[in-house]
Amino acid sequence: MIWLTWRQFRLAASATAAALVVLAAVLALTGPGLASGYSAGITACTRNGDCPRFFDHFFDDYQTPFLAVAVVVLILPALLGLFWGAPLITRELEAGTHLLVWSQSITRTRWLAVKLTFTGLAAVAAAGVCSLVVTWWSTPLDRSAAPGFTLMDPLVFGARGIVPMAYAAFAFVLGVTVGMLVRRTVTAMAVTLALFAAVQIVMPLAVRPHLLPAVSASFELGPENVDSFNKLSDQEFPQVILDAAIPGQRGAWVLSSRLTDPSGRVGGDGAPVTVRVSTTSGPCAPSQHSQGPGKGFDTCIAEINRLGYRQEAVYQPFERFWAFQWIETGIYVLVTAGLAGLCFRWIRRRLS
Amino acid sequence: MSAVLRAHDLGKKYGKRWALRDFTVDIPAGHVVGLVGPNGAGKTTLLKLAAGQLTPTSGTIAVLGGRPEAEPAQLAMIGFVAQDTPVYAGLSVADHLRLGARLNPGWDAALARDRLERLGLDPRHRAGKLSGGQRAQLALTLGLAKRPDLLILDEPVAALDPLARREFLQGLMEAVAEHELSVVLSSHLVSDLERTCDYLIVLVGSRVRAAGEVEELLATHHRLTGPRRDPDRLPAGQHVVSARHTDRQSTLIIRTDAPIHDPAWSVSQVTLEDLVLAYMDEPAPAPLRPVLEVKR
């Protein structure tokens, strides 16, 4: 049965393997240069004490390829579900060949078990290899990533570590299940894509933030968490916009970051908040700016902190990255197992 | 030897529609059984039930003494060539033989090779490029080489031209003689079955209309022609299968074990085709009506 599974699958397998080899080759050729550029930059910036600026520049330079490879890892499971999972059974049903193979001396349960296991493990392996090379290549960029692109952020989290393998297993079995239920390859592919995309959107937005209780804390304002501070000429007071970053918690996944004023009123997430600090006299007056670059900002921020403005943040610390990876992998594995169970029930009871 | 196919009140329902119901037969081994009926009569459903590809909704079925549930030992005893003789279009002829060898413990590689050689099928040919007749032969070879005790074929020749049809049935009959198989073969054309079968089941509207050995069926069915008369007034024991009337004449096809004595009839032989057509013509038997009570 393994021979037949391989015989039917080898074309798709070789095509995917070839694409992965190309990806791995490109990353293997460019990865060492990226890593040495990073370490050279680090050595230089620790001498000047200007590492945040180096991180910004370094990440900006490589942002496009960084996102491109992340998207490859995110899309691969969907493709596996679409092109390996959905047609696995429907192709047989459409050609009627399921009746040929089921009338050999092999039960259809065993037939499905071999097909699911063999092709499913290949899908997991493909996603694993893809995630591995991309995680390796992106290491310098992950260390210098801008807020919003760190390892914990939804876009990158799903493209690193072990979760891509769980996504692939889920997408593949989802494709098989949908195929069994709708019995038409093209319909099954469309439904699989829609369902998988929905799950992949709902998971980081609605489920993942609650997998572990998030940390809530308030922080003083500082260069790390203030995105912009400016005063429009027609307004009396300046406005502050907060960054989705936590002071002293590099790489944390910020679920909400809001500015509260001294009376405890909370501003909107990422919305500008008017800070009632005098800009005509005192630390935030324009005259202070002449004292030297950066100086005026620091003293003004200190004054704003003194008035009682704080950042109220809810976040998942960076240290939980692997905990989240394992929990999410576990969830996907359970759902995958449930779908596989449904497939076996269906093939025994309903399909023929 | 036990019955090759024994069914009691067998039924299969799809949603609300019965594809087959009240099916009761007992077919001894060693026959070539023809299953005939119009399209949609339930032939495929019956054959899939026998091959263990479907589970019945009601009743029981035993094939070669065992329940045809999909378990390897039972599957190994039954060869099944499904409708339209499906083969893997992307696989070569040789791949199909390998498939058979890997999935069947009792695989007869020599038989398969010899058969394909005799048919002139190139093992390197892709199955998708074969003609309909060659494809049917390949599917039959797969069914035969697993060395089953019973071979089930669902409309194997429906898509074939007359020449390929004859060749296929000839090949089948040779294999039957050589390996002492029982065969169940369905068709909606009687002519296909006439040459091959010695047992016939007529299935119309999901129910069996007639079942028995061909010789016996032919001996017990007669065509009566005579002056017009009401078919209800025939003697007991003469069952009317079909009746046609003109103004002056009646033509009946009846089933009876007893000789026909009425001199008003001229009695003639029926062919298998007449017989099957008569059953297909017959309106579905009305469901038993409740006896009307007289209201006072």
Automatic annotation (TrEMBL), chain A:
<keyword id="KW-0812">Transmembrane</keyword>
<feature type="transmembrane region" description="Helical">
    <location>
        <begin position="157"/>
        <end position="181"/>
    </location>
</feature>
<feature type="transmembrane region" description="Helical">
    <location>
        <begin position="65"/>
        <end position="90"/>
    </location>
</feature>
<protein>
    <recommendedName>
        <fullName>ABC-2 family transporter protein</fullName>
    </recommendedName>
</protein>
<feature type="transmembrane region" description="Helical">
    <location>
        <begin position="188"/>
        <end position="207"/>
    </location>
</feature>
<feature type="transmembrane region" description="Helical">
    <location>
        <begin position="111"/>
        <end position="137"/>
    </location>
</feature>
<feature type="transmembrane region" description="Helical">
    <location>
        <begin position="329"/>
        <end position="347"/>
    </location>
</feature>
<keyword id="KW-1133">Transmembrane helix</keyword>
<keyword id="KW-0472">Membrane</keyword>
TrEMBL record, chain B:
<dbReference type="InterPro" id="IPR003439">
    <property type="entry name" value="ABC_transporter-like_ATP-bd"/>
</dbReference>
<keyword id="KW-0813">Transport</keyword>
<dbReference type="InterPro" id="IPR003593">
    <property type="entry name" value="AAA+_ATPase"/>
</dbReference>
<dbReference type="InterPro" id="IPR027417">
    <property type="entry name" value="P-loop_NTPase"/>
</dbReference>
<dbReference type="InterPro" id="IPR051782">
    <property type="entry name" value="ABC_Transporter_VariousFunc"/>
</dbReference>
<dbReference type="GO" id="GO:0016887">
    <property type="term" value="F:ATP hydrolysis activity"/>
</dbReference>
<keyword id="KW-0067">ATP-binding</keyword>
<keyword id="KW-0547">Nucleotide-binding</keyword>
<protein>
    <submittedName>
        <fullName>ABC-2 type transport system ATP-binding protein</fullName>
    </submittedName>
</protein>
<feature type="domain" description="ABC transporter">
    <location>
        <begin position="5"/>
        <end position="230"/>
    </location>
</feature>
<dbReference type="Pfam" id="PF00005">
    <property type="entry name" value="ABC_tran"/>
</dbReference>
<dbReference type="GO" id="GO:0005524">
    <property type="term" value="F:ATP binding"/>
</dbReference>
